[in-house]
Write a structure and sequence with these properties.
Blueprint lengths: L3 E4 L2 E4 L7 E5 L2 H7 L15 E10 L4 E9 L3 H13 L3 E2 L1 E2 L9 H6 L2 E2 L21 E3 L7 E2 L28 H8 L3 E2 L7 E2 L2 E3 L4
Parallel strand pairs: 4-6, 7-8
Antiparallel strand pairs: 1-2, 3-4, 4-5, 9-13, 10-12, 11-13
Length: 207
């Protein structure tokens, strides 16, 4: 059913489809794609702990698309809540596909500006598990919302987005609908980090 917009105080049908979502356990085909790519035997969560959240998102082309996030089962309902709010606000997302489509390569996913969740990997430059390895972190439009360390951005074509003053669709700013929507489910934003700025990153722990 189409939603309704107010245009000059007059109700008109919104041609965009309504938001939809589903949460499911990982099927065998998904598990097969993940094993040895984004999930390994030493990972801190089991495949049974993860859920595929399929949902509608608003694209940069101003049309509705369907994407999938893999997250911890205890984060799945929260993702539906957040992305419903982002869809209703028409916040644009470049791409949303599980990171095994990029061979588990975080840099390749960032370069494609791909919004993603679970990936069993360490925090860059450390031996500590990333919050993504627990399925309790999501990176949104990671190229246009880059990870900035000492003023540097790793992916060359994403460096121009370190300038947060430029009005670029799909960028995240303090106090906007994205930050507020994640805060409403208790998740923190990497844009609030002290020693670096991870503008793409949201997590349940705030790390």
């Amino acid at each position: 059913m189409a939603s309704v917009l107010l245009v000059q105080n007059r109700a008109v049908a919104d041609p965009a489809p309504s938001f939809s979502s589903s949460i499911s356990s990982l099927d065998q085909a998904t598990r097969t794609r993940m094993i040895g790519v984004t999930w390994f035997l030493n990972c801190p969560v089991s495949l049974d702990d993860l859920r595929a959240v399929t949902l509608t998102y608003w694209g940069l082309d101003a049309t509705a698309h369907t994407g999938t996030l893999v997250v911890n089962r205890d984060a799945a309902d929260g993702m539906v809540t957040v992305f419903r709010r982002l869809y209703d606000a028409r916040f644009p997302i470049s791409l949303m596909t599980p990171i095994e489509a990029f061979g588990g390569d975080d840099d390749a996913s960032v370069a494609a500006d791909n919004t993603s969740g679970f990936n069993c990997r360490n925090v860059a430059g450390t031996t500590h598990w990333s919050e993504h390895a627990y399925g309790r972190a999501v990176d949104i439009n990671p190229c246009r919302n880059p990870y900035v360390v000492r003023g540097q951005v790793k992916i060359p074509h994403c460096r121009r987005f370190a300038d947060r003053k430029a009005p670029v669709p799909g960028t995240i700013h303090d106090g906007d609908v994205v930050v507020k929507s994640f805060a409403a489910i208790g998740w923190g934003w990497g844009g609030h980090f002290r020693n670096s700025k991870d503008y793409q990153h949201f997590s349940a722990s705030g790390r």
